[in-house]
Each structure stands twice: as C-alpha cells, then as structure tokens.
Amino acid sequence: MVAAGLEPRPGVLLNLFNTNYWGRSVTFQAVSRWLKGEAIPAQDKLVVLAGLLKVEPEVLRFGEQVRQSVERYRQRWDEGIGYQEREVFDAFLQLPAPQRKVLREVILTFAKVHTADKN
C-alpha cells in the first residue's frame, strides 16, 4: 500500500476497494484479514487489488520472490535455447504421445549418463 502511495490502514483499502469492485462490497474485517495475511482474497478480488496497488496479481498471491524465480527460469530458457533446439521441440510436440514418451526416456537416460560422467 505504501508503494502505491496509500496509507497502510484497512479503512483506506476498504473504501478504495469497494468503490472499484463490481461485486458485493467487502467488510472491514475481511480487508483487515487480508492485510494481516490471515486470509487471501478470491481471484476476482485479487485482480482488482492488484490494479489498485499497481502490482501483478501473482505478486500479491505468492510474493515477489516467486515472481523473480519464474522470471529467472524464463530468462534462462529464452537465452539457452537457439533456433535448432526450438525446431526440435516443435517437432517433438507434433509427435504422437507414445513416440514422445520413448524420446523423453531416451533423453533422460542420456542426461543421467552425462551427469554421472561429470561426477
């Protein structure tokens, strides 16, 4: 709330939320429980809260660390894969399930052997 320029009090959030939410108004007790971490708002309420507080809904739900972890994973995936790997992944995804299963087992076996060779 402070980062969004709001005073961190339940009454402030209650008024702001209820004037921007299209559903049934929430109570002071509900907002107090949200702020204390005793309750998590329903998804529709979480989306409205995220907009009001100018953060992503997943940050409100899971915290900043989870979002950063997901971003690091995506960045590693995007940077570590070239055109040829993407072409192979696309071809893999077009195969029938039984063939994908066989290829998956072969790849995991190669990876296991490669890891064992390193140690």
Give the name of the CATH architecture of the largest domain.
Orthogonal Bundle
Proportion in helices: over 70%
Kindly report the average pLDDT value: 91
Q: Count of DSSP helices? A: 7
The first-level CATH class name of the largest domain = Mainly Alpha
What about the largest sheet? none
Rg over C-alpha atoms, rounded to the nearest angstrom: 23 Å
Structural class: mainly alpha
Tally of separate domains? 2
Order of helices and strands: HHHHHHH
Please characterize this protein's 3D structure:
With 119 residues, this protein is mainly alpha-helical. The chain folds into two domains: 10-66, 434 Repressor (Amino-terminal Domain); 81-118, no CATH class. It has seven helices and no strands. The chain has helices at 10-20, 28-36, 43-53, 57-62, 64-80, 83-94, 97-118. Helix 1 crosses helix 2. The termini are far apart. The mean pLDDT is 91.
What's the quick description here?
This protein has 119 residues and is mostly helical. The protein has helices spanning 10-20, 28-36, 43-53, 57-62, 64-80, 83-94, 97-118.
Helix and strand arrangement:
Layout: H1 10-20, H2 28-36, H3 43-53, H4 57-62, H5 64-80, H6 83-94, H7 97-118
Helix pairs in contact: 1-2
